[in-house]
Amino acid sequence: MKIPNFRWFIITLVFFAAVLNYIDRQTLSALAPTIQKDLGLTDRDYGNIVNIFLIAYTISYLVSGRMVDKLGTRLGMAVFVAFWSVSNMLTAAAHGVRSMGFFRFMLGLGEAGVWPAASKSVSEWFPARERALAIGVYTMGSTVGATVAPYIVIPLAAFPFATHMPFVSNLLGEGAGWRMAFILTGLAGLLWLIPWMLVYRQPKESKHATEKELKLLADSNAEEAKSAGSVVNEAPWSWKQIFSSRVVWLLLLGRLITDPAWYFFQFWFPKFLHAERGLDQSQLTITWIVYAAAGVGSLAGGWLSGVLIKKRKIAPAASRMWIMLGCACVMPVSIIVVNVTGMTPTMGFTAIVIIAALAWLINISSLVVDTVPKSCLGTVFSIVAAGSTVGGIIMNTLVSAMVSPVASNPVGFLDRAVYAVFGPILRAVQGGGYTMWFWLMAFLHLAAWAMLYFGRIHKNAK
């Protein structure tokens, strides 16, 4: 059966994969107090488990894109969704810091693979003027997943299984509620595989794509092929070409420098509100504004660059750079966030910063699709995205030092390893408080934009 605009059905499936990805990721965060109590985990244990997840995520990024290119979008996406879903379900068997760390490591290996597969699906199904919007749609899935996760898993963890479903309580043992939360959220990912495997094909092989849609894609590909310096239809790059490409290194460094802003709002902003604005646990539900703003930024960033391409006839890569410049100029608003008093202005200015940060993220992600051959897009996208997680780890380490007392000493193998290498820098910022990070965050995007511009990323230079 032919379905008009079938590409939007495809991106809807990818959107729900991103929702499930972030629900599974945030399950541990949402249930951390309960799980820490049941398993006897300290805050240091929890922090190390989070970093273990990010390390696995980084490792996976380096190889998952190449796997997606080899397996194809359909099978590659399915393999990673199945792997992370099973890993999430197995987390229900954790009984201590080592087992929990192992299962979260496995989750990280699986979850990273969805993003290169998602970008590859966009390159296959969307014309240039719609790609940033499509990436914005599936990126919004991550913010939706992060938003709804607590409302799904906290009630599951609190459900009295011992009273109403004693067989489940007997099977899972102590902590049956949070263990069942991991099982059910992982199971949802396995169910998602059914429609994906049934409907996803290359456009020309799809039974659902109309002739009009196929012509739209063919015309877009032909226009790109004619554009000066276009590389999107070149043969696959070798590893040597990838790691010697100026485009790859510029994009990797751009993500490394700027993605820490978004990681901060995910991992540390609630703690900032608690420490600096005096909010208690129940009042932290106000952080839904963070994810709502992220959704707005994801869609707005993609839509605006599409308008520049369609209405102003600006080349795709150049349109991304114009939107990113606007976003970079907005980011210094973060200085206001840390200096105002009262929750209304704090959250209002925070929303502005997050909208700019996510609009930037959508467009720098679109630059990968614009400037890299489709045949090796997954590989390059995953290598570039590895810069994101490295940046997240650096941010996590810096902010942790900034908000820790000067007398605090590193505890745990990860902490000691980091301090052995970066000790002088961390000791210099230790005890500086959140204000130091907000000032640093204000200018990260401007620095990255200058690097990309003078590196001529918008000229598709290799």
UniProtKB/TrEMBL annotation:
GO molecular function terms attached to this record: hexuronate transmembrane transporter activity
InterPro entries per UniProt: MFS, MFS_dom, MFS_Na/Anion_cotransporter, MFS_trans_sf
GO cellular component, one term: membrane
Chain segments annotated as transmembrane: 6-24, 45-63, 75-97, 133-158, 178-199, 247-265, 285-309, 321-341, 347-369, 376-399, 436-455
Membrane topology, from the record: Multi-pass membrane protein
Principal place of residence: membrane
Tree of life domain: Bacteria
Coiled-coil region(s): none
Ranges for domain Major facilitator superfamily (MFS) profile: 10-460
This protein's UniProt keywords: Membrane, Transmembrane, Transmembrane helix
Compartments reported by the entry: Membrane
Name of this protein: MFS transporter
Species the sequence originates in: Ereboglobus luteus
Lineage of the organism: Bacteria, Pseudomonadati, Verrucomicrobiota, Opitutia, Opitutales
